[in-house]
Design brief:
single chain, 440 residues, mainly alpha, 0% strand, globular
Length: 440
Amino acid sequence: MHPPRTAPHGAPSMPRLALAAMAGTAIEFYDFYVYGTAAALVLGPLFFPTASPLLGTLAAFGTFGVGFLARPLGAVLFGHIGDRHGRRPVLMASLLLTGLSTVAVGLVPTYGSIGVAAPLLLLVLRFAQGLGLGGEWGGAVLLTGEHAPAHRRALWTSFPQLGAPTGFLLANGLALVLSAGLGEAGYLAWGWRVPFWGAGLMAAAGLLLRSRLPETPQFRALEATDARAALPLAELLRGHWRPVLLVAGGLSLVYAFHYAMSTWALAYGTERLAVGRTVMLGCIMAGVGVSTLLIPFFAVLGDRYGRRFLCLAGSAGLALWMVPLVALLHTGRPVWMTLGFGVAAVPFAAVVGVVAAYLPELFETRVRCTGAAVGYNLAGVLGGGLTPVVATALAQGSGPPWAVAGYLVAVAAVSLGCFALLPETRPAAAPGTAPEAAPA
């Protein structure tokens, strides 16, 4: 197998590394989002048919939340591998685990065929998905960040960040095409399974691509001097527990907003507002598309003006837009809903564009994979795993779901406080300098 193409000075080509990281992350997040879309649209009646429509949706979102509970455990497991054995093995193992479990979800018989075993199998496979994704993010951002020049670190680490919205667009775009092409009966009968089966081919392509990636220079330096942490998690809890908790609180808003809009709003629009499934998917995808275009722009600003400032500004912007967004969503009109999602995508992208550089820079190299991954995935539990369930429970009555807006504003207040307590980490480096370790 040929070695990766290198830049003239001997370092691996950054575009190639960044695109490989982005492709793998897109595949992993595609796997995760496919489940979220299915939970909002079909898993309730297929796997929890004895419950009322509301309880069925809540139960489906409950299995969705199990994936978030597994993600911190995956972060600990794969973080240990990344800090002890290298960033590259994490990328291979996490992709394999997530891909296999996603394909298996598409093969699970419904409640009508095997009874209570069906939702139990969903729980197990969703847990496996969460374990895999818990290791993916840390490995991907460290692969690019530890190769990148310090003065362009946010830019290059924004490529793995693009994988999340790309995976979302792939998952929901396929659901939209299948829903429109097969109709209600065909989609409910078997069409919803197709995106899960497609994950197998995508995972195989991702593994082939990642097999050509090199290890990062910073980990090789740790390995050469035998400076690796013996027990990364124990060392992290002894000396770095404060930034882990602040990162989890700070990023909880990003998760809460994203899953409120991509999962809860999808169910709310189709079930409560009687908006067509394809229309709701299209409106949400338009907002995600806006954020995808803006993430690299905000990453460049993060390299110039700092990471913390953009995290604070983005969190404040989301807080201010929550009430107007809920009002626009409740109209049920595609133009107004798309406007709401599109405007919210701007402050959302401001945070997402810089956190892949920011989080690893908060931790020493020897515990960086564990620290960044655990903080990032704890935020998923706090913000992402609970939000669809909480929002569904709060959105009762015939009027606009103001309680959902209030909940998201409260999460925003927590995030702002946590980011305010974290330091700025942007390295001061002149153009042309060699890659360096991020500050501890």
